[in-house]
Amino acid sequence: MNKSEQRDLANPFGKLTFLVVDDFENFRLSMRQMLRSCGADKIELVGNATAAIQYCSYNHVDVVLCDYNLGEGKNGQQILEELRHKKLLKRASLFLLVTAETSKEMVMGAREYQPDAYLTKPINRAVLEKRLGSLIQQRHTLLPINREIDHENYPKAISLCLEMLPKQPRYKTWLMKTLGELYMQVGDLAHAQKIYDDVLAQRELSWARLGRCRVLLANKHYEEAINDLRALIEKHPDYMEAYDLLAATYEQQGKLAQAQRVLEKASEHSPNALLRQKHLAQVAGANQDMDTASEAWRKTVNLGTYSIHDSPEHYLSLAQSLSDLSEGSTEEGGPEQASEALNVLSKMEKRFPEDEELPLRSKIIQSRVHAGQGNQREAQKLLSQVSSQLQSSGDYSADTGLDYAKTLFRLGRDQEAKDLLAQLAARFENDSDIIQQIENLLDEPVGYRQKIKARSLNRDGIKAFEDGDLDTAIDTFGKALEIVPDHAALNLNLVQVLLKKYEQNPGAAGAGLVQACQQRMKRLESLPEQHRQYRRYRALSQKLKGLSA
After folding, report:
1. Residue 439 sits in which domain range?
2. Where, per the database record, does this protein carry 4-aspartylphosphate (predicted)?
3. Please, which of 112, 266, 370, 483 could form a disulfide with 243 given CB 3.0 to 4.6 Å?
4. pLDDT for 215-241, tens place per residue?
5. What gap in Å lies between CA 78 and CA 60, rounded to an integer?
6. Residue 549 pLDDT > 70, yes or no?
7. Strand partners for 96
8. Based on the domain organization, do 440 and 477 belong to the same domain?
9. Is the domain of 430 the same as that of 467?
10. Cβ atoms 502, 513 nearer than 8 A
11. Alpha carbon separation from 247 to 230, 265, 292, 296, 301 (Å, rounded)
């Protein structure tokens, strides 16, 4: 050990830079005095989040001591969130959250971004030196590994972890956890699993069980991952990472209803996590549960007020979900939802004035809101303004085009909507996600409530077919097609049932069934080859040709 290292050990606070963030000057001065008495020299004091983030943007900071409640603006959790997001803190930097508040919501929300420690007010010198001194010692020991991770030199970081394991048994848990994460980072699933299995063989630790589930998910062992994650959540109901991974597992299986239930439960335990509220809103929207989606979007917008993750897309999504809920509902809360949608759009335009496309997107949704409340005059007026702007600009995003087409359908301008979607399909022919959205809109160019009714009838029709009740299936699919006459899957479902009935009545009585099938298939003649129902359409077309020959 050289003399410099000896000095660092004798005074571990001496070479580090400290940032104290608190809105009370007396507390800042008190913290500076305590840090100086511990041997610290480089100490910066700031009174709010803006100053803290600005300082970290231009200066290296080893230790941040940040109060949770900072008055108006960002709180300590949101400062940590932004510093992590912008990568303004090195892995070796320490972030300690200082608070007099101990509510579960605060602790759960702050824990999402993993501060290195909590310090509870009031703080004295002995407590500060003990807690911080231990963290600084760990920081010093593990600095070579963290430095390589910051440089994204993961193989070197792995080598250093393996070298340090027998030398530093005190930090074995940290080293094993980091090793597992690094092996996952480089795609070495076998070594990652071995790390987690070795840890679990000695002791049941939540992070090791979660890590092993990540390996299972990467290897597509869904059921084993689901069983282990459920058990982990039951044992540790506040372990939020387990909920997120379980929801992701269900999503990969296409089980969106189960994913939504998991995210709802997680959001009850930790309601202040913006990204999880957003995820819940998206999954609920995909499940056509617009009540849950709108509430989750509402929370996302509110949490975004001082968050780095704030986005106009959150406001647009909330307004769209409220528009869907209010459409055609002039009683039982419909007018209130419509009014809220318009207010949300107004707030969005004021909050994000630099985004030139937002006023246009706002008018598109406003038009739909007014149409849903029977105010056709205002709806058409807004849509005319949109049409003029789009024609003059000629360049707009896929999201704007899709939402515009949706509004055109709602106002009965079906051909304009189809022409627009054809243009979008040509512009974004290589973007499968956008093509999928175009297909969905062409299949179901109707309002939320009609869409729900058509989908319910479709499910009933499928059940009747599976039960062998062909007449009920034909009648039910027919009712669904009265709502969405060009829906590819529904038309093909009806054709399939009619053909099954023809097989039971192949004589003269079946001629009318074949003719009905031909009429349905005629509606799908323009179905593009890229459509997910195209292969089924071709197979049924060939079958019909054989019957007609």
Report:
1. 311-445
2. 67
3. 266
4. 999 999 999 999 999 999 999 998 999
5. 19
6. no
7. 65, 117
8. no
9. no
10. yes
11. 11, 11, 16, 16, 22
Predicted confidence band of residue 445 (pLDDT cuts 50, 70, 90):
confident
Alpha helix locations (H) across 123-188? 125-150, 154-164, 172-185
Which two structure tokens, joined as six digits, stand for 86?
């912008």
Residues 426 and 471 in one domain: no
Token pair listed for 262: 């998991």
Which pTM was predicted? 0.87
Asked, for residue 12, whether it belongs to a domain, the answer is yes
Sign of CA dihedral 135, 140, 144, 147: positive
Q: Please give the Cα distance from 459 to 112 (Å, whole number).
A: 40
Give the ranges where 221-289 is alpha helix by DSSP (H).
222-235, 240-252, 256-269, 274-286
Name the one residue in this structure whose structure tokens are 């528009």.
323
pLDDT tens profile 391-424: 877 678 899 999 999 999 999 998 999 899 888 9
* Minimum mean pLDDT range among 31-45, 188-202, 473-487, 515-529: 515-529
Counted domains in the chain? 3
CA dist., res. 305 & res. 308, Å (int): 9
- CATH at 488: 1.25.40.10
3-state secondary structure of 425: helix
